[in-house]
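Risk register update: the risk of archive-format incompatibility is retired. Evidence:
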Amino acid sequence: MGRITDGKNGDPLPYVNVYLENTALGAATDEDGFYMILNVPPGNYTVTASVIGYRTMSFRDVEVSIDLTTRIDFDLNETALDLGETIVVEARKPIITKDLTASTAVVSSEDIKALPVTEFREILELQAGFISGHVRGGRTGEIVYAIDGVPITDAFDGSTVIDVNANAIQEFQFISGAFNAEYGKALSGYVNIATKEPDNHFNASLSGYMGDHVSTHTDVFRAIDQVDPSSIRNFEGFVSGPIVPNKLSFYINSRYTHFGGWINGRRVFNPWDITINNGPNVPVEYRYQIGRTGDGAFVPMNGNDRIYLQGKLVFKPVSTLKFSYNFLADLMQYREYDHNYAYNPDGDFKRFSNGYTHIFTINHVLNASNYYQLSASYFSNEYKHYVYQNLADSRYTHYKLTNQQPQETPSFLTGGTKPQHLNRTTDTWTAKFDYTSQITKIHQVKLGLDFSRYRLDYRNLTLIQEAGLQDPSISGNPFVKVHIPNPDDLYEYTSIDLYTRKPAEFSFYLQDKIELSQMIINAGLRFDSFFPDGQILNDPSDPDIHRPRRPENLARTLAERRTYWYKDATAKYQFSPRLGVSFPISDRGVFHFSYGHFFQIPNFELLYQNPEYKFGVGTGNLGVAGNPDLNPEQTINGEVGVSQALTSDISVDITGYFRDIRNLAGTRADEIDLFGGSGTYSQLVNSDFGFVRGVVLTVEKRLSGNWSAKLDYTLQTAKGNASDPAATRNHRISGEEPEVQLIKLDFDQTHTVNATFSYVSKDDWGFSIIGRYGSGMPYTPRQSINISKLLTNSEIRPANINVDLKAQKDFLFGRQRIMIFARILNLFDFKNQLQVYDDSGSADFTIDEYTFQHQNVPVLVNSLDEFYRNPLFYSEPRRIEVGMSFYLNP
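Archived output:
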């Protein structure tokens, strides 16, 4: 939007044509010289103004961002003749964004290209307020991820369905403040990803890189000194262009990645190896006969293979109507390191994650002031893990092999296979409608509604081995036949968790963006509702319908018990007001304020955990039951800040924020007694709470003089009664009293610093550096069990620091460009301690190790140093990647 005036006398110029070159977007000025072009996709444009009698003028590289207004004013000069000349001006984005009422990081495709990042999550980790999946002290799973305006978050655990390729992103927005009413279903943050649009001319690129970890930390990471340049392989490319010029165009992006990881196991044992214990009467050094049939090869245990594919079609039958279809697939096979399986890597799980997304969108401009967007989407996320895919695989081993290793000294497993099979799929169908109306020059009203239907299929089972088998140390036979647990068998059905649930959500919002000359207001109201598909117990003291405890229930058949055993969970509703205000305090300073109530249904894994309330026999706490009748989790977010331009290129922003967190899911402090007094169990309820406050200081120098830089510092305190839903139960079963006061949360990082520096030479070369610092997070010292609950999270782990570097050089050959680049992650090979032992506060030492050393226990399987130097306790070592990109530009 903007105003066009006569360059000589400043009078407004009506009926001037304003248009975005190479698009069908444009408008004409009104009698006051005012124009507005709505519905502009994010990106960089050339904006041109022309009218008879005046010289045509263009602003080049005008940046447009999601939800933000870009103002371009023209002063046109008269001309007696139409000389066909155009005055071209390089647009400079205002260093202060005046209509930004909530903390929002905006990262363009050019920013992404310059940074030493290859993954979407690496971009997210650079943003102030984001710490290892937690936003401003919130739990994981409290973020919504949206692609092209459509949420694509897996409602089961709050993860992303698709990890979008960084090179396919046109613009990335991370909103950590009190976001507008149009954004819902999130407590902590909202991630907006706009994917690239197809070009109306042919464009293509190919890129590849290879690399490996190069580190001296052989005391922690096995074989890290054996450099293999093919351990990391990445090949990707895109092609874009018209099918029917100006009507139908396409964009295709694909990527294959092999990531060898940095944690290796060693195949000392195979799963079928047998260890024989000759009894306590034999000296320890001769007590065990340990079978070792492994080949000794190093095996990657935290690597992955990934295939990413995106296809986008855009059809514009007329300039005011656009149809688009976006398909994304993200297929990954990977492993997660289990320290116990370090010498028996083939006995651990193989893991698979397959995400598919289909988004169909209609965007229709009704007139210069009104347009709507209608979206229909389907996305599916499947996760599964197992050792062997075939349930009848003859290589499954006797369960005793996973507990046969020597117990006199800490030892890795010497054989065995994990018997679990897990397969879960979350399918989501969403219809979303958004209508935008520029009612006046001041008021832009937006309203919308969306409906989501879910289908959650969950199948988790522990394979049952055939009965009556001898101990393998006696029979010499490690293999067994296994079968799927029978849900109708009273002894086997507790080994299977099988359910299908179909909940639904409906939301509606209304918001008004009021753009006054001295103030911008975002005011809105959101309504959310949730319809759970689940049942709760009528009698919590007798939860298991298959094995009732009360005599009167025992006397009835299963069919009779089903008529009164459960009752349906109730629907949930919530109204959430939102308000954001921004107004100038000087010609180069802006004050901003935002406040809102936020609503989120707990993740489905909490609602539907153990849905049939199965508990075994015995005493003590026998397990946890989910609760489909959980109320919405709620947060009140507020922030206030000021942005000030120090020079034409340097700005500073300081923002203070708070988060009042209520009704989080947690395990109730008072355990539920089972009838007969034989045991108890825990159930998830809305019992947890917290309070977060902090300050963010950001100093940014935008690109000028060939360099740019940004520094943000966050000072934060995050406290609550529990860091995760199971914390209260874990306190109970470990003999501690549950917390009834605010304590430091596990992810409370007091000091966080992110810094970036980029240099771009006029000779087509450049480099960028990312530096990060995080103070240590809290942990609970072991003595707290014996002394006082006040010691919970009373100690601090060591701080972490990391530096990443990217350098590149461009070579131009006419219309082609070749870029050679190198990336070094963890440039200085810092060995950061992510986890520590609770008796020492260090990952490098534990009193347990010291005790065993002085007992002179012989090395039977592994050394003490191998066992107690857990690679998961440390950050990723130095990684080096070298590659080349080829660009075919118009």
